[in-house]
């Protein structure tokens, strides 16, 4: 039955476990699964409790069922095997050194495996490295079925654990070979090629894994080293494809599973075929506005500065994509992660201009708050460039750039009040954008043409937006040109105070 000592062993409460042991608690009592407190401490990496139990005479030769299913019936292991199974190197090191346990101790069952066999089977490369470095460990020891640790590491298609990515098994196998495990390199390369040739998520079901291959396959024909290297490339391609597919489908659990283990290796891989060639997973997630995916990718080391081309100096970044599609939360996350707010794409457009050309006034305001710069060369229409006519207009861009002559020409050509107050995708008007950039002459001209000076975008009026970026002359013009409608924003002194305390954000 479960006792409080079992609970303390699982949770690492050495302080209260010591009190119980001092009052005569039984160190060999077993819980419902047949585990002693010592076995629980080994399984849950509680070194202090394990040391305490050993000091009070806990038996290291107590056997209990392991979690690993080898397909030949359950195996019973000691604390040594429990530590190897769970991948706890510090526990294992203490048991082998301080407690002087035999690292080649075998399980009780039909398999009769050592801790090294178990670690190799499960892809516990750290445990394998620790064990093979010890002179007393027999690296080529065979279990009851004639299998060595290297055989187990290369027997991935029959592995019983869903938590052993193939790269882990490859690392374990390579460690064994590097330390002299007998492989007849030929069959090892062949096995590695086989075990890495299938993607992780298409493995056969657990019920099929109990069909063991005959050991004669291990002595098959030579396979050259180049093919083995190519097999590792296949593994990488499979993981990259899974990573990109998870981002396209916005499957958080799938993305998390792909990134587990050594997912950081592939997190910045690029799409190599089909649409969006050159994009990384972060580009895909940012473009679609998948907040959870972007956050997870950044946490796993996604490079926010990478572009969609190999030329990192000029190209579309994730911020460009999020800005043009209006995903403000994604833009914020990327900028907070260190993305360059003024990065230029192939057409020298920054995220600010990309947002502007796609009618994203709210993103424009956000980027300006984060210190986005926009340098103008000439007073002409050439600065306008291309834009999405479904989302914005040339008048919006001309007003934003402060191109008064172009604004006048467009306004006279249109002769339409609707065009003067046309809104982009985010609801911004030409006058609102001009006010945000502090172009007083453009604001004055549009106001004289009948443009609405009190238009709001996401709750922010033109005067409030101008005040946010310190364009007090624009605020003064709007307030004096339509008195009584600015709701107290007429005081420039008050605006100056508000500008420092409420509106202006620190540039990132």
From TrEMBL:
Keyword Repeat included in the entry's annotation: yes
Gene3D superfamilies linked to this entry: Ankyrin repeat-containing domain (1.25.40.20)
ANK repeat locations: 1-32, 33-65, 277-309, 314-346, 347-379, 426-452
Keywords: ANK repeat, Repeat
Repeat listed as a keyword: yes
InterPro entries: Ankyrin_rpt (IPR002110), Ankyrin_rpt-contain_sf (IPR036770)
Entry-linked PANTHER family: ANKYRIN REPEAT AND PROTEIN KINASE DOMAIN-CONTAINING PROTEIN, ANKYRIN REPEAT-CONTAINING PROTEIN-RELATED
Official protein name in the record: Ankyrin-3
Organism annotation: Phytophthora citrophthora
